[in-house]
Design brief:
This protein has 261 residues and is mostly helical. The chain has ten helices and two strands; from the N terminus they run H-H-H-E-E-H-H-H-H-H-H-H. Strands 1-2 form a two-stranded antiparallel ribbon.
Length: 261
């Protein structure tokens, strides 16, 4: 049996590569520190930042959310992003798990969880899932909406995998959904845009589980998660589109007044 080498060099953890939205958020943070913008100033439009920094528009939105979470900017629907306060000497750009990162992880993990659950799920659990689908439909009609039944639906599927590690991982992702400031902010924007759990998508997952078809269950869950990501993108796009409309209307009004001089 080989003996471990003495004084072996410690293996240093390699930090994850910086994502585009993080780099952009840091650049904008530096602009605020340098005094390029004053409190009350409007930041360049999403399209301008996308072109200027050569990043996608979703990356711009994630960067804006990161700055908004820190209270540095305020995104006003139909108007744009405005500087709310300037960073202090001890402030630094901070990042939490984003809603898009969380949903990407859920797409990968919960898709496989659904496939495994299709093998092990009990009849009484299938009946409970059916009840939860009906509850999701009722919750969608409530003022302000609710996600209690949606969470219970996904956690029951996680339990049905009969794998404690998978269940704990999915439970942790739901915890991050409410505790990560970035996630909470974007989900609030989604609720404002009337984005709600889609009943038909949950029914498709349930039907695949009832058929005991792992491949169909995986596809249905991944399709559901992909749709959620698209809904979140829609919520952020709606803000950008409305801001563009307001800017165009303001410009049109300005030149209309000028034409009357």
């Amino acid at each position: 049996m080989a003996r471990p080498r003495k004084n072996a060099p410690a293996i240093e953890a390699v930090p994850p590569p910086e994502r585009l939205y993080q780099k952009l958020a840091k650049d904008l943070f530096s602009d605020l520190v340098a005094g390029r913008y004053a409190v009350g100033d409007r930041l360049p439009a999403e399209r301008e930042l996308s072109v200027q920094y050569n990043v996608s528009r979703p990356a711009v939105r994630e960067a804006m959310i990161a700055l908004e979470v820190q209270g540095l900017i305020e995104v006003r629907i139909g108007s744009g992003a405005y500087v709310r306060k300037l960073p202090g000497e001890t402030d630094a750009p901070g990042f939490t798990v984003t809603a898009f990162e969380l949903m990407e992880a859920r797409l990968l993990i919960e898709g496989e969880a659904a496939a495994l659950a299709a093998v092990h799920i009990r009849e009484d659990e299938l009946d409970e899932l059916e009840r939860l689908v009906a509850e999701i439909e009722r919750e969608n009609l409530m003022p302000g909406g609710s996600t209690h039944a949606d969470q219970a639906f996904h956690m029951l599927i996680a339990t049905a995998t009969r794998n404690a590690v998978i269940r704990n991982q999915i439970e942790e992702m739901w915890r991050l959904r409410s505790t990560s400031p970035n996630c909470a902010l974007l989900l609030e924007k989604a609720r404002t845009a009337n984005v709600q759990p889609v009943v038909e998508e949950h029914k498709a997952v349930l039907d695949a589980l009832r058929a005991r078809d792992p491949a169909a269950a995986r596809a249905a869950m991944r399709g559901h998660m992909s749709a959620v990501i698209n809904h979140l993108l829609f919520a952020t796009e709606e803000e950008a589109i409305e801001a563009a409309r307001r800017n165009v209307a303001s410009t049109r009004e300005r030149y209309a007044r000028a034409a009357q001089l």
